[in-house]
């Protein structure tokens, strides 16, 4: 009876110890994977740093380039003709399609010929009558000259017959001129192309009365613009005109003032100056209002690509050709202060170089300042490289880089 109270206090500390041990075991179970992971990571070496990015490098292209100026202008036809009738009459036929190419001498329009044929016949008949009168006057004068003047015929009669011959001769001349004019009028009923070129649309339909002649109210039938060769007109500023004059050889009496510099042209939808021509005219005075002078060049146009009135851009050599360095536009980077290229030095480190750019020639950009001929320029992979960071260069050439794929993942 007395042992029961003594056993109860002894069981309480034992159960508390059991609960503490269970809590420690649970904590160890939770921490064991973390400790194992830490030990494993400490025992394994760290992963290696990524290799330097691969880039393609090439040396700039060295080429003889002439400094060039560009001007905007417009094409004009060498020959532009308005087709108008020389005689009046009703339009009988049209012998062309609107907008077609015609050659010099091609028949374009026909005016009703019948009235002019009748006029020609009448003139020929009048000429025959005049010639008959002349023959009678000549024979009459011959008879008078065969007899004695004063006894058979008076001097007055002889003078009258001589006068009759002269009048008959003048009448014949007048009738011959009338026949010539009638022939011309009949010939003018056929309107032929005075020049070769492209004809516009017809302005008058068949059956209409056409007013001809040399007055200002004649009927306009069509227009013809020559197309090959074709002219290109533009304006030069005074400074450029003087500069070209210093480069030109002696030729101040020539139509182009001796400005025989090469001239190239491109249309608004073309990337480069692919058409070559020659200067053939410079105006004789500088415009006082604008300080410019009018110039003109001639270009071959066998396929009719250029059309009068079309805009274009010409490039004129402004200085003698000199060596220049060229790189692809893809190798040029931009920042707020200007343009730059990345070059790879002897330690394969990318170094920026600020450059001054010129025009595009043959698909490559001219670099006027900031680049050396032996620099290894990054032409592919510019976005992967960073200034001052090592790269893995692969040597190539500008031509190979331009011909290769441009869709590299930079």
Mean pLDDT: 82
User: Care to count the β-strands?
Assistant: 23
- Number of separate helices: 5
Q: Would you identify the regions where 5 or more consecutive residues have pLDDT less than 50?
A: 1-12, 405-410
**Spatial separation of the terminal alpha carbons:** 94 Å
Measured on Cα atoms, how large is the radius of gyration?
Answer: 49 Å
Structural class category: alpha+beta
How much of the sequence is in beta strands? 25-35%
Describe the biggest sheet?
A: 6 strands, antiparallel
Q: Classify the helix fraction into a percent range.
A: 25-40%
- Element-by-element helix/strand order: HEEEEEEEHHEEEEEHEEEEEEEEEEEH
| Major sheet strand order | 2-17-21-20-19-18
Task: Provide key terms for this protein.
6-stranded antiparallel β-sheet; alpha+beta; disordered C terminus; 31% strand; 410 residues
What does this molecule look like?
- The protein has 410 residues and is of the alpha+beta class.
- It has helices at 3-43, 114-145, 155-188, 238-247, 398-403; strands at 54-58, 61-65, 68-77, 80-84, 89-94, 101-102, 107-111, 190-192, 197-199, 209-210, 220-225, 230-237, 263-266, 275-282, 292-299, 311-317, 322-327, 333-335, 338-344, 350-361, 364-369, 377-380, 392-395.
- Helix 2 (114-145) runs antiparallel to helix 3 (155-188).
- Helices cover 30% and strands 31% of the residues.
- Residues 1-12 and 405-410 have low confidence and may be disordered.
- The strands form five sheets. It has a six-stranded antiparallel sheet, with no helix packed on it.
